[in-house]
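Input sequence (525 aa), recorded before submission:
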Amino acid sequence: MANDFDVIIIGSGAGGGTLAYHLAPTGLRVLLLERGDNVRRELENWSSKAVVAQARYKTKEEWICQDGTPFHPGQHYYVGGQTKFYGAILFRLRERDFGKIRHHGGVSPEWPIGYDDLEPYYTEAERLYYVHGERGEDPTEPPASTPYPWPAVSHEPRIQKLHDDLQRAGRSPFHLPVGVKLDERNPEKSVCVRCTRLDGFPCLVDGKADAQTCAVRPALEHPNVTLLTRAYVDRLVTSADGRTVTGVEVERDGVRETFSADMVVVSAGAVNSAALLLRSANDMHPNGLANSSDQVGRNYMCHLNSALIAISKEPNPTRFQKTLGLNDFYFGSDDTDYPLGHIQMLGKSDGWILREGAPKFTPRPLLEYVAQHAVDFWLTTEDLPSPDNRVLVDRGGRIHVHYADTNAEPHRHLIRKLKELLPALGCRDRLIPNQVMRDGRIPIGGVAHQCGTVRFGDDPKDSVLDVSCKAHDLDNLYVVDASFFRSSSAVNPALTVMANALRVGDHLADRLGATAAPRTEAVPA
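Predicted structure, C-alpha cell format:
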C-alpha cells in the first residue's frame, strides 16, 4: 500500500482539478487520480461529424434507466473532466438561489451556506478561469466585490442585432460570463481564436478555460502533486470502526493498487461519486459508504434543458455565438409568479449537428441551409430534488439512473415565452417542422449539469455531507463536485463547483496545518 500522500483527489474536473490547484502551493503531498487520459490533440477535436455524429470522445459505457433500458450518457472521462467539453459559461448562483424558493413543481430547499460565504471564492474562481463579462447588465445578478477580471466578449453582428431587438422588445439581454483565454484588444496574442467550436468540443489550441489548462497543469508544476491517469477507483476501504477511509483501491492498466492518505476527496461527478460510495459498502456501512442517512444517490438533478433552433429571416454567419443571455424570466414573468428559468445562446450549429435531430433521409443541402439561417438557443429551468430521482448500483456494478420530471410546466412556459419573442427577433413566426428544427428536451443521457446526489447540510439525517463537505459518517472523506448541491438553480453549475472547491481547499489546508494558496491574480489572457 502506497502511503505517501496527505490528500488523494478522485477526479480532475471542475471540483477535483481546482482543489488540486489550490492545494499545490501548500506543500501538501497530493495524488490526483483520473480514470481517463488526456484528450488527444487532433483535427477531430473540432469536427462536428466526429464529436457530435460519431460521439468520438464520449464514454462507450451504458447506464440503465428505471424501466431497464440502457442508454449512453454524455459523459467524458479525461483529464479536466466534463470541462474539456463544456460551454465555459461560468455563472454565480443568484443570491436568492441559496434560500428556499417555491416553484410550480415544489420547493427548492435552502442551502446551509449563503451567497456571502461563496462570494470571495467566486471572485477567485472567475480570475482563475478567465471569466469575461460585464457587471450590471443582468437584472438578476448577485452583488460582486470586484468587476469581472476581463471585459465581456463582444457580440458578432447577428447577435448584436438580436441583443438590440430584445432591448426594443423591453427585455434585458446581457453578455454571458464566458471562460476563454481571449484578448480582443491583442488578437495576434490571443490564445482563443473565436471559432465555432467552444460549446461541446475540446479546444485544439487550449483557448477554452477548462480545468486541465487552468488548474491541473499549473498544479503539476509543483513537485508535491502527482497525477495518475487511466486510474479507475473501484472502491474505498475503511478502518474496522468505519470512521476513516484507509485505502483507495485503483485499477490501472489491468493492475490493482491501493493508495492511502490522511484525507480523501471524491470528485468524480454526481453520478459516479454516488456510485463509488455505494460500491464501497462494507459491514460498518452496509448501505454504502457515508450513507447512514440513506441519501447517497438520492435527489439527482440535471436541470430541465432544451435546445431551440430558430430560423433567422436573414443568414446568420456568426462563429462565436455563445455571448448573449436573458434572465428576464428567471424568477417569474408577467403571467406567472413561479420561476421559469434562463435563456442563453448555444454554440453555432452546422449540418452535422442538425442531422442528429433530423429524419434519417433529410437532404444534406436542406440541413446546411437551415444551419446557415439558424439562431441557436439553450433554455434551462430549475430541476427540483426528489428522493425518488436517484443513482443506484446493481450487484454487477452497473449504474442505474432513476429520473422523472419534477418541474416541467415552467420549462414549457419558458419555451413559449421565447417563441413569442421570435418574430420581434428577426426569426420566422412560422417555424419549420420540429423534425429539422431542434425544439425539445435534452434526454436522460444529457448529464452535463448533473448534481445533488451527495448533498450537504446541517442535519445528518437529511444530508450526507456537513457544511465543509465532509461526510457526516467519516472523519476524512470529502466530496467537492456538484454532488453537494441541495438545489440546482437554473444557471450552469461549474463556477459554483470551482468556488466551493476553493472554499473546501482552505478548510483542508487549515485542518492539515498548511497555508492555503494565495488569492489568484488576474493575468492577461
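Checked by second reader. The first strand starts at residue 2 and ends at 10.
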